[in-house]
């Protein structure tokens, strides 16, 4: 395994290379990364059906979800949350700030595209509504309603904690020299963030899109009311009313994204760079 200073250098070099890839490559690999995280969410949802004990459910779901990050890392995808580590490259004066910001914007937008594509394809597959008596589709209603009902401070802080774990998982994957080390490093750190209930902007791009689809699906049934749909999703009418485009983009995605930036860029990237800078020079 690389030393912390060697890992910091590898993070800087790898992040700089990714940010300077051709735009078309970044777009394609960002769509792939958004879709991979969505597929991890789907595995998490299917893996936890019928588990009633919260702690066990959270752990199993977190381990399942980690497959999404594995797909991103091993295929070379561009994921917004881990792209915060390009801040290390910028601090080394090897990547201009404007280039870093442009890279973040492209990755964020096309992660969104990938997540939304998978959300609609998953719904059209018939799996969320057709398996387990629709338990998965109903689950997304309650989850989406809860996420779009968070206060700014709650969502922001949960976003910080989330990306500390995600960026540390990527950092460890870079530092580990064998496949097993990379996998174990990602599994436990991603399970920790998911199991603790933190907020990941790309995961939410899929989850809340699927929740909006689920809400429309059940409201479109004969005789459906907000009360009946809220009951299906084990939520309240008040929270269900928050499950809308504004709740998605403004109430949830803005503070979560800002929190993810702070957690990944400052708590991991800047701290890692500043702490190991003397050894990196050597």
Overview of the molecule:
The structure is a single chain. The protein has a single domain, classed as Glycerol uptake facilitator protein, CATH 1.20.1080. α1 (4-19) packs across α13. The relative contact order is 0.17. The model has no long low-confidence stretch (mean pLDDT 94). The chain has helices at 4-19, 23-47, 54-75, 86-91, 97-124, 127-130, 135-147, 152-175, 179-196, 201-219, 226-232, 237-242, 245-281. The chain contains 13 helices and no strands. The two termini are 18 Å apart. By secondary structure, the protein is mainly alpha-helical.
What are the defining features of this structure?
single chain, Glycerol uptake facilitator protein, 13 helices
Per CATH, what is the topology? Answer: Glycerol uptake facilitator protein
* Spatial separation of the terminal alpha carbons: 18 Å
Mean pLDDT: 94
Element-by-element helix/strand order: HHHHHHHHHHHHH
The Rg value, from CA coordinates, equals: 19 Å
Oligomer: single chain
Helix content: over 70%
Count the DSSP helices: 13
Percent strand:
under 5%
CATH evolutionary superfamily: Glycerol uptake facilitator protein
Outline:
elongated
The top-level CATH class is Mainly Alpha
What is the name of the CATH architecture?
A: Up-down Bundle
Number of strands: 0
């Amino acid at each position: 395994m690389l030393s912390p200073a060697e890992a910091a250098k590898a993070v800087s070099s790898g992040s700089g290379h990714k940010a300077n890839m051709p735009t078309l490559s970044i777009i394609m690999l960002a769509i792939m990364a958004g879709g991979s995280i969505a597929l991890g969410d789907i595995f998490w949802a299917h893996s936890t059906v019928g588990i009633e004990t919260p702690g066990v459910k959270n752990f199993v779901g977190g381990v399942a979800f980690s497959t999404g990050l594995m797909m991103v890392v091993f295929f070379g995808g561009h994921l917004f949350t881990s792209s915060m580590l390009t801040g290390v490259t910028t601090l080394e004066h090897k990547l201009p700030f404007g280039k870093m910001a442009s890279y973040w914007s492209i990755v964020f937008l096309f992660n969104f595209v990938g997540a939304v594509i998978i959300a609609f394809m998953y719904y059209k597959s018939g799996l969320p509504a057709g398996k387990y008596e629709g338990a998965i589709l109903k689950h997304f209603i309650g989850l989406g309603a809860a996420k779009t009902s968070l206060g700014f401070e709650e969502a922001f802080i949960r976003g910080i904690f989330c990306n500390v774990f995600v960026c540390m998982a990527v950092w460890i994957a870079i530092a580990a020299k064998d496949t097993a080390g990379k996998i174990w490093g990602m599994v436990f750190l991603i399970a920790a963030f998911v199991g603790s209930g933190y907020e990941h902007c790309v995961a939410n791009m899929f989850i809340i899109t699927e929740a909006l689809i689920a809400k429309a699906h059940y409201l479109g049934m004969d005789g459906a009311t907000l009360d009946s749909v809220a009951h299906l999703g084990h939520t309240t009418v008040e929270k269900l009313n928050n499950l809308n485009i504004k709740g998605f983009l403004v109430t949830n995605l803005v503070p979560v994204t800002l929190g993810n930036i702070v957690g990944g860029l400052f708590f991991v990237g800047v701290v890692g760079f500043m702490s190991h800078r003397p050894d990196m020079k050597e």
